[in-house]
Structures
1.
Amino acid sequence: MDYQSIIAGPKELPHCDEEHKIAVRNWLDLPDDLTFKIISRLDTFQILTGAQQVCLQWRSICMDPLMWRTINMCHIGIHESAAHFNLGKMCRHAIDRSCGLLENISIKEFGSDDLLEYIIDS
């Protein structure tokens, strides 16, 4: 599938002739389980700071406790804006969203004894 078949937008481009029409898809038309799989490939920071703010459907999917069975916050340093966030607080928020279903957590550079106790207690 080429990039043109997944562009979100109107069903037809008005300035194209019949021979050059592009197949256009709307991301909101994807089934929730497929959208869940796509979002789950993002890291925790990307979900909390971006994906959940895209639309109501994505926010609903991001609130699903199954999304939070694995929390990966090891590569936060690659996000330039990470310095503006309280990573410990973000991690606790992600843990809370797991609703006790947390199976795997990876943190680096901001862990503390308090955070480890919070993980254990959750």
2.
Amino acid sequence: PGRQEQHLQLMMQLLRPQDAIQLAVRLESARPRRVRYLLVVRPEEAGAEGQTALLGVDFAHEGAARCTLGMVLPLWSDTQVFLDGDG
């Protein structure tokens, strides 16, 4: 598989079995080799619509075999998120 597919598989390993990635966006990084993603994640179970979260995931470099969770932000019904400039 390509790099993006490998990254998605590694990111899925960070999640609970009932969670699903709704959206994954690769971000620009201030460090040249570091690879960063912003994920929108929520449980697939019925009635879990209000349990959405933003996750920040980091890879040390493009071919890294593991990733780390750098940010967790729960989204509530009145949450507004603005991404501006370098994040």
3.
Amino acid sequence: DLQQKVEETEVLKMELQMLETERVRLSLVEEKLMDVLQLLQQLRDLNISKRALGKILLSTLESCCDPQPGKAQLFKVLDTLQQELTACELLHKQPMEQAQSPQSLANPLVISC
């Protein structure tokens, strides 16, 4: 009876460790997703065109075309998208343009439909 309790305790400890690992992984995904959403918001505020945003997204997907098992591939896509958005020239030019003139918010890449 005591041996069975010890085994059950070990199983519960392993399950708890797996849950904690998953919680940490989800926390990291949440942080990465928040970063990506903030970058997208900044680009929207700069009136980035849908075409330019589409090119960033397609570039991200093309660079992550290696078939990997589920969660690892999704995190790689999210991470690469964050890197692509961070590297976007509009985000780096924005502070200088605002300092030059208040009219600099108009983006020449905007395409009206």
